[in-house]
Design brief:
The complex is a heterodimer. By secondary structure, chain A is α/β, with parallel strands linked by helices. Helices cover 51% and strands 13% of the residues of chain A. In chain A, helix 10 crosses helix 11. By secondary structure, chain B is α/β, with parallel strands linked by helices. In chain B, helix 14 links the parallel strand 7 and strand 8. The chains are: A alpha/beta, B alpha/beta.
Chain lengths: 291, 361
C-alpha cells in the first residue's frame, strides 16, 4: 500500500470504512514502522482495525488481551514446568544424565511462547505479523513499563537461551478504552489516533457494507437514530458494534423500518444500563425516528 | 522550525528530535491533499484527544491553512482567582511567621477554623498541611510475589529448587497476592458557600497528591473541572494558581448532583479503577435536585471502595446535617467527617490509613 488512498480502498475491500485521519495514521504507521495507538469509546471499531490490517497484509494476527496483573509469564513466555519435571524424572530413571541433558531442559523446546515472544519470533523469521495489544488500559503500569522496553527495540532476551532480534518490527496496534490514562512515554513511541463515533454518512456506509440485507432507507434511519442517542448524555452511548447488533436484531424481527414498538423491543441491543433505557424512553421513542 | 516551539508552548508533549520524524512523515504522506499532512502531524504530536483542539489551533495559525471543519477550539472563559496571602508565601515573610510560632501557638492554629484565619496564620496553616504524614489504605493487587506460607504454587521457583544436587524431593514454593495502595479520588466543592475553605482544602489535596504519588482531583460549583494535571506541579502555590486559572465557576452556585453525575458519566470509568477511595468535600448546600444527587451518590458508591464526605461545617457545635443536599447524600456516605481545621484534616489522614483491606460488609 503506497498511498493513503490505497489504504482507504484496501480497508473498504475488507469491510472496514476508514475515515481519512485513520487512513493517514495507519499508512504512516506502516511506512515508519511505528506502533499505532488507537484510543476511543468502546465499540467504535478499534480492534477491528487490527483484524482488518492482518487481512489486508495477509499476515498472522497475534493478539494479547490485557488484564490487571498481566505479567511477563503471560505476555512473553513461560517454561513448560510440567514437561520439564517429566524430563528430569526420565533422565533420573535412565540413571545416566549428562550435562547436555540438563541444558536440553532449558532449551526452546520447553518454552511456551506467549503473544509478545511469538510476534518477535515471527518478525525475526522474516514474516511481518500484526501484533494486537488489546485494551492496554486494563493492564497495570508495571506492564506498561515492560511494554515500553519491548516497543523500543523489538528484541527479547531470554537468560537461558539468548537474544531474539527482529530487523523489521511487527505491525503493532495498541488499543485503549481510556479506563485510565496510558503513560505519555509509551504513547510518544506510537502514532496516536482518537477513533470517534462515525458521522451519519459513514455509519450508513458501514451498515451497507457489513449488513447487505439492510436497505438504504433503514440504514439511514438507524444511523440518524444512533446520532440522536449519542447526543443524549447517556451513561454508555452506543458504539458502531451496537449499531450492527441493532441492525441484525431488526433483520431477525423482519422490521424494514423503525417504529416505536420495534425500538422498544430492541432497546436492549443498544443500551446496556437501566438508567440509559429509562432516559431514552422518557425522551420519547418517536423522536428517534427520522423519515 | 518555529512550529515545534509553538506546539510546546501550547503544552503538547513534543520530544527532542521530533522534527526529523515529522520530515519523514511528510515525505511518506506527500503534500498533495493538505488535510493529510494535518492528520499525519497530529498523529505524531498528540498523545490524547484533549490535545486535538490545541494542535489544530497552532496548525491553523502557523500554516494559515484550512483544515477539516469542526476541529478548531473555542477558548473557554477563565477567571483569575487571586489567592489570599500568595505574595508572602515564598518570600521573606515566611521566616518571621515560623519564628513567631511556638508549640501552643501551633495547637491553637490546628484548632482554628479555616474561615477565620488571618493572612499570616493562613501561611502557617499551609505549612502545617504540607508537613502532614500520609499513608493510604491498601488493597490486594492481582500480581503475586513469593511467599513462605502455602497458597498458590510457584512452579518457576519450585523447579529451580528441584534441580539443585541436594534436592532429593520436590519442595513446593508458593506465591501470594501483593498489596498495593488504593487510588484516591478527591472531589471538592468550590462554590460561594465554600469560598473561605476552598484554598486550604486545595492545599490539602496538593499535599495528598504529592505524598501519595497518584490521585485524581476534581472541583465543582455549577460544573465539574478536572484539576489532576494542575495539582501535579510540585510547588503548592504554583499548582493552586494553575487550578484557579483552569476553573471557570469559582464561588458560583452549587449543583452537587450534576457534578457527581458528570463524574460518573465521563470520568468514573477512566479514573475509577482499582477500588478507589472517594473523598467529597462540600457543605451540602445544593441548588440542584436532591433526587438527582441521591441517584448519583448511589452510583458513585457502587463504583468505589469507600465514600468519605468531608464537611467544613460539621465540626461546629450544634451542627445538624439538615440541608436537603446533605440529607439526600448521607445514606450513601461511609464516613462523614468535619474538615474545618488542621486537627480535622489530621483525623482524615489517620482514617485513610485505617480503612480495612476488604470491601465494606
Amino acid at each position: 500500500m503506497l498511498s493513503v488512498d490505497a489504504v482507504v480502498s484496501a480497508f473498504a475491500q475488507h469491510g472496514y470504512v476508514a475515515d481519512r485521519g485513520l487512513a493517514v495514521t495507519t499508512h504512516l504507521a506502516l511506512q515508519l514502522g511505528r506502533p499505532l495507538f488507537l484510543e476511543g469509546e468502546a465499540g467504535v471499531g478499534k480492534t477491528e482495525v487490527a483484524k482488518t490490517l492482518s487481512a489486508i497484509l495477509d499476515a498472522e494476527l497475534i493478539r494479547l488481551q490485557c488484564y490487571e496483573g498481566l505479567d511477563a509469564s503471560q505476555a512473553l513466555y513461560e517454561w513448560d514446568y510440567a514437561r520439564q519435571m517429566l524430563a528430569i524424572r526420565m533422565i533420573e530413571a535412565t540413571g545416566k544424565g549428562t550435562e547436555a541433558d540438563v541444558s536440553d531442559i532449558m532449551s526452546r523446546e520447553f518454552l511456551r511462547p506467549r503473544p509478545l515472544l511469538k510476534a518477535v519470533e515471527a518478525a525475526a523469521a522474516g514474516e511481518r505479523p500484526v501484533l494486537l495489544i488489546d485494551e492496554l488500559d486494563r493492564a497495570d503500569e508495571e506492564f506498561e513499563a515492560y511494554l515500553l522496553e519491548l516497543l523500543s527495540d523489538f528484541q527479547v532476551t531470554l537468560p537461558e537461551i539468548g537474544t531474539i532480534r527482529s530487523d523489521e518490527p511487527p505491525v503493532v496496534v495498541i488499543t485503549s478504552n481510556r479506563t485510565r490514562e496510558i503513560h505519555d512515554a509509551l504513547k510518544r513511541r506510537c502514532l496516536y489516533h482518537w477513533l470517534d463515533y462515525p458521522t451519519v454518512e459513514r455509519e450508513v456506509e458501514i451498515l451497507r457494507l457489513r449488513m447487505p440485507g439492510v436497505d438504504g432507507i433503514l440504514a439511514r434511519q438507524l444511523a440518524l437514530a444512533m446520532a440522536d442517542l449519542r447526543s443524549l448524555d447517556l451513561f454508555k452511548p452506543p458504539g458502531v458494534a451496537e449499531t450492527l447488533d441493532w441492525a441484525a436484531a431488526l433483520k431477525l424481527l423482519n422490521a424494514d423500518q423503525l417504529e416505536p414498538i420495534v425500538i422498544d423491543e430492541t432497546l436492549g441491543a443498544i443500551l446496556k444500563y437501566r438508567e440509559d433505557i429509562d432516559r431514552v424512553r422518557d425522551h420519547g421513542l418517536e423522536s428517534l425516528i427520522h423519515s | 522550525m518555529g512550529f515545534f516551539h509553538r506546539l510546546r508552548q501550547a503544552g503538547l508533549p513534543i520530544a527532542a528530535g521530533a522534527s526529523g520524524e515529522m520530515m519523514r512523515a511528510v515525505e511518506v504522506i506527500g503534500l498533495a491533499p493538505p488535510g493529510d499532512v494535518f492528520y499525519a502531524l497530529r498523529a505524531l504530536c498528540c498523545t490524547s484527544v484533549e490535545q486535538y483542539d490545541r494542535f489544530a489551533a497552532v496548525f491553523v495559525d502557523y500554516f494559515r491553512q484550512r483544515i477539516p471543519a469542526g476541529l478548531v477550539a473555542t477558548q473557554p472563559r477563565t477567571r483569575e482567582w487571586t489567592i489570599s496571602g500568595e505574595e508572602e508565601g515564598e518570600g521573606g515573610g515566611g521566616e518571621s511567621v515560623r519564628a513567631a510560632r511556638g508549640a501552643s501557638d501551633t495547637e491553637r492554629l490546628r484548632q482554628k477554623d479555616f474561615a477565620t484565619l488571618t493572612t499570616a496564620e493562613a501561611a502557617a496553616v499551609r505549612s502545617l498541611i504540607e508537613a502532614m504524614a500520609w499513608s493510604l489504605a491498601r488493597a490486594r493487587s492481582r500480581r503475586h510475589r513469593s511467599a513462605s506460607r502455602p497458597g498458590r504454587p510457584d512452579l518457576r521457583r519450585t523447579l529451580r529448587g528441584s534441580v539443585s544436587p541436594e534436592a532429593d524431593m520436590v519442595r513446593l514454593a508458593y506465591q501470594e497476592r501483593k498489596e498495593r495502595q488504593r487510588p484516591l479520588l478527591f472531589i471538592a466543592d468550590v462554590s460561594g458557600s465554600m469560598e473561605r475553605y476552598s484554598e486550604m482544602l486545595l492545599y490539602f489535596a496538593h499535599a495528598a497528591r504529592d505524598r501519595l504519588g497518584r490521585m485524581e482531583a476534581f472541583v465543582f460549583a455549577t460544573h465539574l473541572t478536572r484539576i489532576t494535571r494542575q495539582l501535579e506541579r510540585r510547588d503548592p502555590s504554583q499548582a493552586i494558581a494553575q487550578v484557579s486559572r483552569a476553573v471557570t465557576d469559582w464561588s458560583s452556585g452549587t449543583r452537587i448532583g450534576e457534578a457527581i453525575a458528570t463524574f460518573n458519566r465521563d470520568w468514573a470509568r477512566r479514573v475509577g479503577r482499582g477500588g478507589p477511595i472517594a473523598i467529597i468535600v462540600s457543605d451540602g448546600w445544593d441548588r440542584g435536585d436532591p433526587a438527582v444527587l441521591a441517584d448519583e451518590m448511589a452510583r458513585l458508591r457502587r463504583s468505589v471502595h469507600r465514600v468519605i464526605w468531608l464537611n467544613p461545617l460539621s465540626g461546629r457545635e450544634g451542627y445538624q446535617p439538615l440541608t436537603r443536599g446533605m440529607q439526600a447524600a448521607l445514606p450513601y456516605v461511609d464516613d462523614f467527617l468535619p474538615v474545618g481545621n488542621v486537627a480535622n484534616l489530621e483525623k482524615v489522614v489517620q482514617m485513610l490509613d485505617s480503612i480495612p483491606l476488604r470491601a465494606r460488609s
